[in-house]
Amino acid sequence: MKFPWTMIAIMVCSTLLANGNSSLIDGGENGKRWSTHTDEQIQNRIDRIQIPFDTKYTPTVKKSIKSYVTNGYKGTEKILGRSLLYFPIFEHYLEAYNVPTELKYLSMIESRLRPSAESAVGASGLWQFMPSTARLYGLKINQYVDERHDPYKSSEAAAKMLANLYDQYGDWSLVLAAYNCGPGRVNKAIRLAGCKNYWDLSRFLPKETQNYVPRFIAASYVGEYYKFHELNPKVGAFKFDDIRAFRVYNYMSFNDIAHAVGMKPWELEILNPAYTSGIVPRSKKGNVVVVPASAAELFQAYLQKKEKNHAPLVTVKGAFRSEHIVRPGDSLESLADLSNCAVKDIMIWNNLKTTNLLPNQILTLHLPKSTVFYRP
């Protein structure tokens, strides 16, 4: 007589689950990443994150964190690797529009930090803009470019949108809810609940939005405490310090740029996902082109030949000429103070047509000879 081993295994698993002991079923290293951490520890860590609203360690938060650090850990490590490229860009624009930089984690749940991510309903990019919303915030979508995929321009648009929603609600948890389902549904939930407390009115929101704020809390937790769960970011081809950003105004192709700087066109596609045809079109306001830091000098030389009105080579008496790489949080005003000059001087030295700086943009400054430029 054959033993019914399959039936016995099912009975054992059922018993383990009934007793709340699922660590064996979670299995191996994945289970250890979770089972060695108590609810109290995770709650205390969440309380220490600078999330700009009242947080709760709900069953949905717990489920999301567990998914990130156990069965989904490989995908999480890829997200963490991409964050090394994109988070400094996000922080620059969030800070510029007075949005808490912790909202950078919003993109983790929107797109898993993939610039070309697409949803079934037509949202796209790191911040998952619908076409109409993207155009409302100044993003172009045409045969040459989809700026929803541009990490720089889409992040500025997202910061503007989040700032506008905060002006409307004055509460960042409601801002997140409105970002997900729209202000109309949030306003309706406020009316039905008779209050503006997210946790009290969430039951009147769509099911996806009810889970949205808890998922944000989970993403924030993982972004802050991934090392506690033995996760290691899988770094891609580039980190933030490995790239340089340029604002260009004239037509150019990836083939021409690649030939000028010694790259492959597909490598440029990775760094410039907004250009859908391998062409950078003309623009009065300027388009963003990103190249590896190692190719920046060659690209600058290419621009000087390509751009008719490139920055003039000037000297300033009593000062020394220096190159400055724009860091997150830099502004023309702060750099003008450093250089003891006017904002318009820096714009002339660099042929800038806008005061908006790009993180990792290369600028020429003429600094007083006594200047000590310290960057931690």
Distinctive features:
18 helices; 4 domains; globular; Lysozyme; 6 strands; mainly alpha; 376 residues; two-stranded antiparallel sheet; two-stranded antiparallel ribbon; single chain
Number of strands: 6
Q: How many structural units, i.e. domains?
A: 4
Helix content: 40-55%
- Output the strand order for the largest sheet: 1-4
Structural account:
The chain is mainly alpha-helical. The protein has 4 domains: 5-36, no CATH class; 44-229, Lysozyme (Orthogonal Bundle), CATH 1.10.530.10; 239-290, no CATH class; 311-376, Membrane-bound Lytic Murein Transglycosylase D, Chain A (Roll), CATH 3.10.350.10. 50% of the residues lie in helices and 8% in strands. The protein is built from 18 helices and 6 strands. The protein has helices at residues 5-18, 23-26, 28-35, 39-48, 59-69, 73-96, 106-111, 131-136, 151-169, 172-181, 183-193, 198-201, 207-225, 254-261, 265-271, 296-306, 332-339, 343-349, and strands at 243-248, 252-253, 279-280, 287-292, 319-325, 362-368. The strands form 3 sheets. It has a two-stranded antiparallel sheet. It has a two-stranded antiparallel sheet with strand order 2-3. α10 packs across α13 (207-225). Residues 6-26 have low confidence and may be disordered.
